[in-house]
Structures are given as structure tokens and as C-alpha cells.
Amino acid sequence: MAALTRQGPRPAPTRARLASAALLATAIGLAASSCSASSNAPSAPAAPPAATARKQASQHVIGQITAVNGSSWTVQGKNGKTYTVSLTAATKFGSKKHPAAQDQFKVGSPVRVSGTITGTTVQATDIRTPGAADSATPNP
């Protein structure tokens, strides 16, 4: 079988051929740029939201209320630090076994404040009277 060869000058490219070539070049360029933008390095896995929430909820301060000013309390922690405790409408007082109300906690009352701690500020989620198990639990 004889090989087909074209003899003579090439025909001038038509607009359709030029448009096809431009489209193909654009597609190849986009594919190449998206491949080079991705990284082969493995990324660090993000902490699951539920685990983060549990960790934050487990932070607590045990101490004594030294001041009450509406939705802001001051608590002197057993560790010697003074904490500003922020209360919200979602803050729960007491426990299922020992229910309590906000007005039961006065200046001088011992407390265990759970919530998110940033520096010496606690965004309170749960406030209760500390139990025997809490006396051995250190503050952050």
C-alpha cells in the first residue's frame, strides 16, 4: 500500500480551522493551568467540628464569685487568676440532678464555670456549684 503524500503548497487556513485551533489551544492552556495550581503536598486534616466543640465545652474554671454585674461576673480561680465570665441567654445553671437559677449564685459562692476560655475571659455555657470531683480538677 502506497503512502499518501500531498504534493504542492499547503492550502491557506480557513477561518473555521483558525477558530478550532484557537479553541483547542485555550482548552489545553486552561487544563494545564488548573493542573499546575493544585498542590501535590498533602494538607493537614482539619479537626472535626464536633471534636472541637467538645474540647471547648470541656474547658472550665473552678473558683469563687468576687463580683456580679448583670451578665458579667468576676471569678477568682483556684489557680490564682481572675476571670471575667460572660453570661448569655444560652448559659445553663446547675445540672439535671441539682437544678439552679442564676440568682442563686451570689458574690462569695463557689462555682464551676464551663465554656470557651480565651485568656482570662470565659464565654460561659454551664455554671454549677463544684462537686467533690471538681476539687481535684486543675484550672487551665
**Proportion of residues in extended strands:** 25-35%
Return the average pLDDT rounded to an integer: 76
**Low-confidence regions:** 50-57
Helix percentage = 10-25%
Principal-axes shape call = rod-shaped
Brief rundown of the structure:
It is built from 2 helices and 6 strands. The chain is α/β, with parallel strands linked by helices and 140 residues long.
Structural topology:
Elements: H1 15-37, H2 49-57, E1 60-69, E2 72-77, E3 82-86, E4 92-93, E5 110-118, E6 121-128
Parallel strand pairs: 3-6, 4-6
Antiparallel strand pairs: 1-2, 1-5, 2-3, 5-6
Question: Mind explaining what this structure looks like?
Answer:
With 140 residues, the protein is an alpha/beta fold. The chain has a domain at 58-131: Beta Barrel (OB fold (Dihydrolipoamide Acetyltransferase, E2P)), CATH 2.40.50.140. It is 23% helix and 29% strand. The chain is built from two helices and six strands, in the order ααββββββ. Strands 1-2-3-6-5 form a five-stranded mixed barrel. Strand 1 (60-69) and strand 2 (72-77) form a beta hairpin. The chain starts with 14 loop residues before the first helix and ends in a 12-residue tail after the last strand.
Which tags fit this structure?
alpha/beta, five-stranded mixed β-barrel, single chain, OB fold (Dihydrolipoamide Acetyltransferase, E2P), 140 residues
